[in-house]
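Re: your question from the hallway

Yes, I did run it. Sequences:
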Amino acid sequence: MTAPRTDAPPPGVRMPKRRGVELSLLVCAVLISVYGYAEVGLARSGAVPPDAARYGAGLGLLALVAHLAVRFRAPYADPLLLPIAVLLNGLGLVLIYRLDLETPNDHAAATQLVWSTLGVALFIVVVLLLRDHRALQGYAYVSVAAALALMILPIFFPAVNGAKIWIRVGGLSFQPGEFAKILLAVFFAAYLAANRNALAYTGRRIWKFQFPTGRVLGPIVAIWLLSVGVLVLERDLGTSLLFFGLFVIMLYVATGRTGWIAVGLVLASAGAFLVGSLEPHVHSRVQDWLDPFASIRAGDGPGQLAQSLFSFAAGGMLGSGLGLGHSVLIGFATKSDFILATAGEELGLVGLTALFLLYALLVARGYRAGLSLRDPFGRLLAIGLASIVALQVFVIAGGVMGLIPLTGMAMPFLAQGGSSVVTNWVIVALLIRVSDSARAPQPDDADTGTLAPVKEGAS
Amino acid sequence: MIRYARRAAALCLVLLVALLVNSARVMVFEAESLDDNPANRRIAINRYAQPRGEIVVDGKPVTGSRDSGQQLRWERTYPQGPLYAPLTGYSSQTYGTTLVEHAEDAILAGTDPMLAPLPLWNDLTRGRQPGGDVVTTIRSSMQEAAFRGLDGKRGAVVAVEPYSGRILALVSSPSYDPGVLSGTGRSVTDAWKRLNTSPNQPMLNRALRQTYPPGSTFKIVTAAAALDAGAVRDVDAPTDTPDPFVLPGTRQVLPNEATGCADASLAYAIQWSCNTVMAGLGVEVGLDGMLDTVERFGFNDTGLRVPSWVAKSNFDREMSADQLALSSIGQFDTTATPLQMAMVASAVANNGEIAHPYLVDRTTTSGGTTIDRTGRRSHRQAMSPSTAMQLQRLMVKAVEDGTGTNAAIPGARVGGKTGTAQHGFGNTGTPYAWFIAWAQAEDAAQPAVAVAVVVEDAEASRTDISGGGSAAPIAKSVMEEALRLEAEARG
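Structure:
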């Protein structure tokens, strides 16, 4: 669909809007979530939860309002993005509600629903107010300043569970690092879009590598090192890993220099080794990853990772059914870091695969929007945002299933966590905006009038 | 830029594939070993997620379940705990299972594949069936009679049906309520500690797991050996044994509690329990002959299951002549479980054959469909039928006019043998009063019941009469109940 030479789709192709598809998919997503909610109640107490209708209505209303915002302000947006987000958020609410039943004093699902509402509200605000994503390009330096400020802020607040990544105001806690990743993606995209030629083709050549001049490379490396450094100080290793991956991917896509990947990997290994051996918190996680059952042999009972593996194994092929698993044995963090274990135990390999495919579809749609855009900034932004989702899913899912060492991170939309859910809604809003630009008819196309205008709402 | 973006997308695809492969690894290929990890609490949670099947006595369950609301949810209750504890054992969240609860655990817990209507489908879905029931051979009225008879004294009663081997009563006393061990927590561990430190050892299953010197009841075995080996051809003929009897190779004299034992016949020796005659006969039969007979009765057998395992009853394989003489009257190292001595009585009653004793009649699904039935199996031929016939007559004589008159039941043919076993250093311990017997209604084709009773704390003088005094009445009440049930069944 793209001519490599011009990096643009051929003119005159009119994309259908497909808003009707989006609406019917949204109905399905809401129905699946409500079904899951009812099933939890049926499995646990033999009755549909009394507030199932209210829950369905709430989720449905959020979906509908979001849909209307998209319909009026981003009519050409990819019709899959919003339904996937609603479905993941709905399933997350089901899983959190299901885990709430095991912890009678904790009503995380209600809180999560409030945060989801806030997330959707922000989604609507972004879709309504941000008419063109290119406007963000001008805020590159504002973004990076805000990102750094947000990341540094938690240093002045007390640590929670060993990580200084929280801001507590009144009863609310907020993880500003979550939001900083969007700002950082905006900055990376803007800076790389502006300087990619300089990064790729200028500078000195040493052996096989083309090194750009310090003037071009300096600021971005400095920003990147600063953010990773701050995160290491705050012991938020998941997010620092995420930023690292994000930076390397965006740099590679912008410049096409494989050497950057190599340099990035070397730096990452060195950093990981250093942190892994110096930081006892991380060291123990690496140990746990290498041998999840050491604590059992030592007579201390299974650790979190071992319990998580037991959960997944108990799920097997088809899962125990919603509400019928025992992933609560994992204890602390079942609703956040380890929520995937509940999904694995109760929905089985089949359900887990479906979840992974939903995320994959979200990422693929993000990439696709990026690929069909003409402007480098938008392209890099879409790819960056999609990569954030992909990396997050991989790092957390790989962590709780023993593929890689565990780093505290939130499963997008699924895990309990207000800042995470809000951030992910904003990411989806930006992807919607970008995909709308990618698929909307260009002004010059419209002028030529090669095709009849597509009827509003047709799919 | 497009090309590099596509490569980045390919990287995301690689990450996705890695996740999917890893999921399959954990959830399919390593699932079994993770499921079976002893530290995985799901095993226990699933096990107690549903009520266990019931253990049934006489058509009524003697077990129950209560919902504790805890993580290990369903706890076992025992409405008549102490009465049936020696057969049910306990099923505890904290301490596991014993006895029938242990032997039939797969049925009771619902994990036995036989419970599933479609075993293969069940394997696939890993579903669980409701626990099945275990129907025992115990007759409640006999069990109660035996329990009442022991009245909290230390001891045991075992009653079997001689022809079939069905165990009709199995009592160990003092007993305990297995229900106090159900569940978890402080009260359970406290109860466990209390039961295990009690000097009365209430959790000891004296009927199956405790061995006692059988004393004079063992003389039936020696008599069978003597008759089968041809050492005695006429039970009424004098046996040429002196009184007092000097143990061979020693200067130690073996005393008799009874009188008239010098040169007495085998019949007289059984009737009045002459030590000298039986010791002499044991020596005459010799170690090999005695071993041959005792092992046919089931001594030295470590493999008996009813289906709970039964402790080995011992008769030494190497002995000097004087030790053999003592062993032949149930002393020295000779020890027997009450079940073993019930098997001795039942061998006599059943023409020399011992039917394999069993406690579980059948197992069923929760819906009542029979899965497995135990049925009669021949265990051993302990002696020739003619020897058994002669011993029957001698045992009847002992009850009619001998040491066992306390067991006589009007209208029934009852054979018995008393015993008092001294034990402890220099015979200072409390003697054990024994009584083994069998009973046959006059109009019945075969004996209805064989029984063994042992009472540890008999207030007994060291005479054979004590077995008749404290143990025989218990045996009598159990046998009366058996005869009554049999008469009822015959209409």
